[in-house]
Design goal:
- The chain is of the alpha+beta class.
- It has four domains: 181 residues, no CATH class; 171 residues, no CATH class; 144 residues, no CATH class; 162 residues, Schlafen, AAA domain (Methyltransferase, Cobalt-precorrin-4 Transmethylase, Domain 2), CATH 3.30.950.
- The protein contains 28 helices and 20 strands.
- It has a four-stranded mixed β-sheet with strand order 1-3-2-7.
- Helix 7 runs antiparallel to helix 8, helix 8 packs across helix 10 and helix 10 packs across helix 12.
- The chain starts with a helix and ends with a helix.
Length: 710
């Protein structure tokens, strides 16, 4: 379809963007690259459309009327087409308002002789060959106009230059005739099928995140979901808590599935009721409760202060679980963990995997944030306290500065000159800023400039920062530190102590700057550690290793993997000798100190599942497998052993079912009958040794049995 036709269909209300599509997120650099590619006649991608007379919720204020008949829904290519609409028409398309776009990409200029495209620069103002490309598309300026302006300035325009300018105008207008290859989903497709295709197209690239794809699927079975989420996020935004739609999807996944990784779990339409129910509680209670908890107890006035917003997901899941009825101690534990999650960068890497782990703790533990604090300690080898050395060379971008800001708020700290509290200041003039205590201009003159990297880092160290209101920071200027702090001490006697600034006047001399830093580092570390420890007493909580972690760690003296119970992968047939090997493993664990056998897991930890074994049991399933397996155990070891020493469960990993066999240590020696070379059955004694099951015989077996079964 020609670009001109695409734009006409948008104007004529024949082409629409569905509500489940994400917003316009392209930047100016993306718009530049698109136009440059079109001018050079490079490939620019395709568009995916769906013809339907039963459309989903649409972006914008247009309401579909069945009298319109079939309309086109734009499923893929929205960012490019929206960009072209804005640049060619000079207006926003009817499905967007200015508040709904991340960046306004209008106002692109082209040099009509060289073909260079760019956004406004100072250098363009003196050169009439730089024109707004929208003016060219609208024909409000023509090639001859440019030539006239050049000639009126006394310049001689050669024929070659005239032709270049004329050709450039033609190239711009030719963009309207460029084709966007259209892939079309036919009218017979259902909404669900259209969204599935949308998902497949986007899953192969990087244009949408997993959360955005999940949101598209949710919008398929709940068309109003996106607008409902946006309305709540807009309300939170007014109070300083700014979240993207991804955050809502993570919260839904966390609460419904205790997961942070597998967004596909939200795709199926059978989630419809659960998603709506959970959202009603999030919208009506939980998100507001969490925002108030953060503001009132953690001193967080704005999400800009948070370095990892996804640390709020376990908190949201916990508040949902507790129906927002937390005791003071429980709130303090949540806040304490939140602070440590920030300064110890819990979610800076491997976000989905860490959320999976932490959300299971939140869902199952009686004291989840005690355990979550233990996890952070374990990740750091047991060290969690802040040391003075951590401040050395650390700039305001370091998470320690965020914690310092919250800590100073908790102390009731005031702006050093206005005396206004730094917690929830009101009015634009009183927005918080951070500024050097020792002015950088003075430090630079003393040798702490950029020519010396190490000294420059010390000049910018967060320890040399005070938190001021904007109006105070503007008035402060580059006063000498001694004069500045002396005036603070006189006018606001407690202000320095509340911001943990050393009050020894000798340290305010610029020659003592590094001693000032050393002194304040210790003050900050001591005060922050005492504050964090005093928030709530937490206790170490034992956590059972997850099945995924158990498999990742591989086989050992407590864990054994078997790919199948009876299906021989190599031979492609049933092999009952494999059943005997598994009985030997069970006996070996029981004779030692117990252990776990995982069937359906290969030696290298690959999850294979039980389907191969199920098929050997006359079209069997889990029930037939379990019945057959228990019969083998009873025949080998007896009813009592099977009932008291072996427990079978069937967990799923990656949508594949495996069998987890928990074997308790036996009260007496367990033997297993195996045929000798002559085919005669003999009792054999096996014991777990390292990551294998080994037979013990003779005196060695007698000694072990005497020691083990005394």
């Amino acid at each position: 379809m020609k670009i001109s036709s695409i734009l006409e269909k948008i104007d004529e209300r024949q082409l629409f963007v569905p509500a489940f599509q994400r917003e316009y997120v392209w930047k100016k650099k993306d718009a530049k690259l698109l136009v440059d590619s079109l001018l050079k006649e490079y490939p620019t991608g395709t568009m995916l459309t769906w013809d339907t007379n039963n459309p989903p919720e649409l972006k914008g204020d247009h309401v579909y009327d069945p009298k319109q008949g079939a309309i086109k829904i734009l499923l893929d290519g929205q960012q490019r087409i929206t960009t072209l609409y804005m640049l060619i028409r000079g207006e926003l398309p009817p499905y967007y308002s200015l508040e709904e776009i991340t960046e306004d990409t209008r106002g692109l200029y082209i040099h009509v002789q060289t073909g260079e495209v760019d956004y406004h620069r100072k250098r363009m103002e003196a050169d009439p060959r730089w024109l707004n490309i929208t003016d060219i598309f609208k024909k409000s300026v023509r090639a001859r106009d440019v030539v006239r302006v050049l000639e009126s300035s006394g310049r001689v325009v050669t024929k070659e230059e005239d032709d270049e300018i004329d050709d450039r105008f033609a190239a711009v207008h030719a963009i309207l005739d460029r084709e966007f290859p259209e892939q079309n989903i036919p009218i017979r497709a259902s909404l669900r099928e259209a969204i599935d295709i949308f998902y497949i197209v986007n899953a192969g690239g990087i244009s949408l995140t997993d959360a955005e794809l999940a949101l598209a699927q949710i919008s398929g079975y709940w068309p109003q979901a996106r607008e409902a989420f946006k309305a709540k996020l807009d309300a939170l935004k007014k109070n300083g808590f700014i979240f993207k739609l991804d955050f809502v999807v993570f919260a839904l996944l966390a609460i419904i599935y205790q997961s942070g990784s597998d967004m596909r779990k939200l795709h199926a339409a059978d989630n419809n009721e659960a998603v709506r129910d959970v959202w009603r509680t999030l919208d009506g209670k939980v998100l507001d409760y969490v925002a108030n908890l953060l503001r009132g107890h953690a001193f967080v006035d704005h999400t800009d202060e948070i370095n990892s917003i996804y640390a709020l997901i376990p908190i949201v899941a916990y508040c949902y679980r507790m129906d927002c009825n937390l005791s003071h101690t429980e709130i303090q534990k949540v806040v304490k963990w939140f602070y440590y999650s920030q300064i110890r960068r819990r979610y800076v890497s491997q976000l989905p995997q860490k959320l999976d782990h932490d959300l299971k703790i939140v869902a199952n533990s009686e004291t989840p944030f005690d355990r979550l604090l233990d996890v952070i300690r374990e990740d750091r080898g047991g060290a969690i306290a802040i040391s003075p050395e951590e401040f050395v060379g650390s700039a305001v971008q370091n998470p320690l500065f965020g914690l310092l800001r919250w800590h100073l708020k908790s102390r009731g700290a005031k702006c050093l000159t206005t005396g206004v509290s730094i917690h929830q200041p009101m009015g634009a003039k009183y927005q918080l800023e951070y500024d050097h205590i020792f002015a950088f201009a003075n430090l630079k003159a003393a040798g702490y400039g950029m020519e010396n990297r190490l000294k420059y880092q010390l000049a910018q160290e967060l320890t040399n920062r005070a938190i001021l209101t904007q109006t105070a920071n503007r008035a402060k200027g580059a006063k000498e530190t001694e004069a500045y702090l002396s005036s603070v001490a006189e006018n606001q006697p407690k202000a320095l102590a509340l911001q943990l600034i050393p009050e020894d006047r000798e340290l305010w001399q610029i020659e003592n700057y590094e001693l000032f830093l050393k002194t304040r580092r210790k003050k900050l570390a001591d005060s922050m550690n005492a504050w964090l420890e005093g928030l709530a007493e937490t206790h170490s909580v034992a956590e059972e290793i997850s099945l995924e972690d158990m498999i990742a760690e591989g086989e050992n003296e407590d864990v054994e993997f078997k790919q199948t119970l009876r299906w021989d992968i190599r031979q492609g047939s049933v092999n009952k000798e494999l059943e005997g090997v598994i009985m030997k493993t069970i006996a070996a664990f029981a004779n030692a100190y117990g252990g776990r056998l995982l069937i359906g897991v290969a030696d290298d930890g690959e999850i294979c599942g039980l389907d191969s074994d199920y098929k050997t049991l006359n079209g069997g399933d889990r029930d037939k497998f379990e019945l057959h397996f228990r019969s083998l155990i009873i025949n080998a070891f007896g009813e009592a052993f099977a009932a008291t020493k072996v427990n079978l469960t069937f967990p799923q990993i990656d949508e594949k079912e495996i069998c987890r066999v928990e074997i308790s240590q036996a009260n007496k020696p367990i033997y297993i009958k195996q045929a000798d070379k002559g085919g005669n059955p003999q009792d054999r004694f096996y014991v777990r040794n390292g990551n294998s099951s080994r037979e013990m015989t003779g005196d060695q077996a007698i000694s072990f049995i005497k020691e083990r079964f005394v």
